[in-house]
């Protein structure tokens, strides 16, 4: 599965702890992240993560384009609901696209726990039917 990992600054520690805790599951999948979140995850876990631009510089929109093409199977976006973001429209757009394409989305660690366990036990396997392929989008990125 192709999994996007994104966290606002005050949620980055939560995201790192979450990926460390579930590293055994995440390492079986292709991981994508906004710039700073991805760097923190790589540093803490050693996992391979394809990093897009930082969120405020367009990373949310880049991930959004993969969601629009049905190339993301699951999104963990730990949002900070108490801090205004300069790129709030991008944040809203990404979430909207998840709803447009019925992509499972966790906007906090509580839902994240449910999604990651569901992923492990095969609850998200219907995504393979939706897009009819499991090839990591990183290959596409390399090809372009
Ligand atoms: O701002 C973000 C999501 O909206 C996250 O971007 P970074 O991972 O680059 O901090």
From TrEMBL:
<dbReference type="InterPro" id="IPR018148">
    <property type="entry name" value="Methylglyoxal_synth_AS"/>
</dbReference>
<feature type="binding site">
    <location>
        <begin position="54"/>
        <end position="55"/>
    </location>
    <ligand>
        <name>substrate</name>
    </ligand>
</feature>
<dbReference type="InterPro" id="IPR036914">
    <property type="entry name" value="MGS-like_dom_sf"/>
</dbReference>
<feature type="active site" description="Proton donor/acceptor">
    <location>
        <position position="60"/>
    </location>
</feature>
<keyword id="KW-0456">Lyase</keyword>
<feature type="binding site">
    <location>
        <position position="8"/>
    </location>
    <ligand>
        <name>substrate</name>
    </ligand>
</feature>
<comment type="similarity">
    <text>Belongs to the methylglyoxal synthase family.</text>
</comment>
<feature type="binding site">
    <location>
        <begin position="34"/>
        <end position="37"/>
    </location>
    <ligand>
        <name>substrate</name>
    </ligand>
</feature>
<feature type="domain" description="MGS-like">
    <location>
        <begin position="1"/>
        <end position="144"/>
    </location>
</feature>
<feature type="binding site">
    <location>
        <position position="87"/>
    </location>
    <ligand>
        <name>substrate</name>
    </ligand>
</feature>
<protein>
    <recommendedName>
        <fullName>Methylglyoxal synthase</fullName>
        <ecNumber>4.2.3.3</ecNumber>
    </recommendedName>
</protein>
<comment type="function">
    <text>Catalyzes the formation of methylglyoxal from dihydroxyacetone phosphate.</text>
</comment>
<dbReference type="InterPro" id="IPR004363">
    <property type="entry name" value="Methylgl_synth"/>
</dbReference>
<dbReference type="GO" id="GO:0008929">
    <property type="term" value="F:methylglyoxal synthase activity"/>
</dbReference>
<feature type="binding site">
    <location>
        <position position="12"/>
    </location>
    <ligand>
        <name>substrate</name>
    </ligand>
</feature>
<dbReference type="InterPro" id="IPR011607">
    <property type="entry name" value="MGS-like_dom"/>
</dbReference>
<dbReference type="Pfam" id="PF02142">
    <property type="entry name" value="MGS"/>
</dbReference>
């Amino acid at each position: 599965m192709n999994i996007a990992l994104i966290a606002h600054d005050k949620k980055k520690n939560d995201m790192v702890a979450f990926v460390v805790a579930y590293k055994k599951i995440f390492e079986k999948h292709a991981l994508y992240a906004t710039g700073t979140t991805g760097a923190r995850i790589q540093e803490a876990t050693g996992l391979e993560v394809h990093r897009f631009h930082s969120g405020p510089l367009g990373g949310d929109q880049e991930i959004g384009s993969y969601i629009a093409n049905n190339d993301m199977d699951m999104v963990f976006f730990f949002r900070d609901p108490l801090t205004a973001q300069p790129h709030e429209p991008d944040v809203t757009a990404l979430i909207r696209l998840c709803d447009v394409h019925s992509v499972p989305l966790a906007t906090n660690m509580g839902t994240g726990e449910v999604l990651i366990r569901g992923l492990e036990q095969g609850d998200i396997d219907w995504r393979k039917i939706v897009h009819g392929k499991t090839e990591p989008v990183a290959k596409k990125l390399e090809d372009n």
